[in-house]
Amino acid sequence: MHIIVAPDSYKDSLSARKAVSAIANGIRKAIPSAQWDECPMGDGGEGTLDALIMATEAERRCETVSDSLGRPRLAEWGWHFVSRTAYIELAEACGLQHLTPMERTAMHSCTYGVGELILTALDAGAERIILMLGGSATNDAGAGMLRALGVRFLDDKGRPLPPGGAALSHLDRIDLDDFDSRLSKVIVETAVDVDNSLVGDRGASVVFGPQKGASEEDIVILDAALAHFADKVAETLGEDFRELPGSGAAGGIGFAARTFLGAELRPGIELVMTQVGFRQRLERADLVITGEGRLDGQSMAGKTPIGIARCAREMGVPVVVLAGSLGEGWQSAYNEGVTAVLALVDGPMKLDEALIRCSELLSDRSESVLRLFH
Q1: What is the pTM assigned to this prediction?
Q2: What Å distances lie between residue 78 and 125, 143, 184, CA to CA?
Q3: Shared-domain flag, residues 68 and 103
Q4: Whole domain around residue 301: which residue ranges?
Q5: Which InterPro entries match (predicted)?
Q6: 24 shares its domain with 107
Q7: pLDDT of 208-222, one tens digit each?
């Protein structure tokens, strides 16, 4: 029996690479003779960089940049010298996982560090940049990233705006005179993990603002500020991508990447599957085991397990999803090619305990799956 082990990370507990090891341990216990293909995955959020570096054998590099609150942070990125490709994961610079719940502030957090990583890639001679957007602590529509790249955002008195999405409500003029000219010669692709628009009921602020510390009042302010930002961008560049699926990814940085960098917005899982040759791996597979921390209705918008299931369905390969928890709407996964879904928790358990025991629970569920399929 040949199994593809292709989980995403289990947030606040296991990286995708460690999840692969836990699942493999369960397979080993159930069927010692089984063969498996270790394929850690990602959909643009935290951990996607690891998956791409493993698949492409890119060099792992580090750079000190600003986190979402402007503090120095050592962030990793990938450099593939032969293809002159840089792999940049937003979450490395300004990911939500780097903040405590008390530090989360969607009103003022900033993507400046992402721009600093892009500058580092340009200095290295990058001709192509894969920008992974997901897991952000920010809601500034990518304004911080653009500021690092030389764009100036000014109020009606010609003063630079302070960091953060809320400040965009005071934007009067966009100055592109110092925008880094090297970007016009670089191909930028973005891996997005959601298909939300920039503003509105399915926009960045309304849907994702609460998990980044935004109150109901903050959400109203942020949504209006991002709409005003889109108005000013349209006045300056003559294009308006606020309704484009994925423009609301990572607090709206998808909008900035498409508008200012000319980036193609691609579902992150599709881009990663292409990079790791997932379809080719499926040709000799009997089963795929995937999973992530939570499976719910929002997962259908492009999360890792669903992207994998859709691909595997085309080739008639069964897919089992091992989810840390199940939320409203998870049953829709069965319409997307998922064969079975199992939650990791096996009884009454506090979240802290579940996070600590995630590896053990993942191994146990994998063993159960394999005993069923064997």
Answers
A1: 0.86
A2: 13, 23, 21
A3: yes
A4: 2-40+286-373
A5: Glyc_kinase_flavodox-like_fold, Glycerate_kinase, Glycerate_kinase_RE-like, Glycerate_kinase_sf
A6: no
A7: 999 999 999 999 999
